[in-house]
From TrEMBL:
GO terms for cellular component: cytosol; mitochondrial intermembrane space; nucleus. This is Mitochondrial distribution and morphology protein 35. One of its GO terms (biological process) is phospholipid translocation. GO terms for molecular function: phosphatidic acid transfer activity. It comes from Monilinia fructigena. Belongs to the TRIAP1/MDM35 family. The keyword Disulfide bond applies. InterPro entries: MDM35_apoptosis. Signal peptide: none annotated. The keyword tRNA-binding does not apply.
Length: 167
C-alpha cells in the first residue's frame, strides 16, 4: 500500500486499503461480498482527502509527493546517468584523437541479463510503481468527481457531439 497524497490522511487510507484488500480477496473473488462493507472508511478517507485538497490544492500536493519520492519520480528516472572515465591519449585510436570530441567518454553501466536478483528487484519496483500510480489516479478521480469535472466534461462532449452531428 502506498501513502496518500495528504500525509494527514495516511492512517485513514491504510484502514480503508486493508478493509478493501480483505474484502476483495476473501469475499468479492468468491462472489459473497456486498459493495458497502468498506463504505464508511472510504467516506472518511474521501472527506480527509477533500479537506486537504481544499486547503493546499492539488498542484502543491503533487509537488510535495514528487519531492518526497524522487527515486520513483518518472521525470527524475528519465535523466541519463553517466559514469565518466578519463581516456588517455595513448588509449585513443587515430580517428578518436583527430575528432573534436571530448577525451571524456560516457561509460555505460552493465547488468548481467540473467541475474535473478536483478529480475526480482525489477519486478518488485514495477509492482510498487504501478500500485502508486493506481493510488494516485484513484485520488485524482475522487477529486475530479467531487468537483464536478466529470459531469462538466460529459456535458461538453455531448454538446460538441450533437453540434458536429448536425453540421
Amino acid at each position: 500500500m502506498s501513502a496518500s497524497l495528504a500525509p494527514e490522511c495516511n492512517e485513514v487510507k491504510e484502514r480503508y486499503d486493508s478493509c478493501f484488500l480483505k474484502w476483495y480477496s476473501e469475499k468479492y473473488l468468491r462472489g459473497k461480498g456486498t459493495t458497502d462493507e468498506c463504505e464508511s472508511l472510504f467516506k472518511d478517507y474521501r472527506k480527509c482527502l477533500t479537506g486537504a485538497l481544499k486547503e493546499r490544492g492539488i498542484d502543491k500536493m503533487l509537488e510535495d509527493a514528487r519531492e518526497d519520492h524522487r527515486e520513483n519520480d518518472a521525470v527524475n528516472l528519465r535523466r541519463p546517468y553517466y559514469n565518466y572515465q578519463p581516456q588517455h591519449p595513448s588509449q585513443l585510436s587515430f580517428i578518436e584523437v583527430t575528432s573534436p570530441t571530448s577525451p571524456w567518454i560516457p561509460r555505460k553501466r552493465f547488468m548481467h541479463p540473467f541475474s535473478i536478483l536483478t529480475l526480482a528487484i525489477f519486478v518488485a519496483g514495477y509492482i510498487t510503481a504501478r500500485w502508486d500510480l493506481v493510488t494516485r489516479l484513484y485520488e485524482l478521480a475522487i477529486f475530479a468527481w467531487d468537483h464536478g469535472v466529470v459531469a462538466r466534461t460529459l456535458k461538453g462532449f455531448a454538446i460538441l457531439s450533437s453540434s458536429s452531428f448536425y453540421s
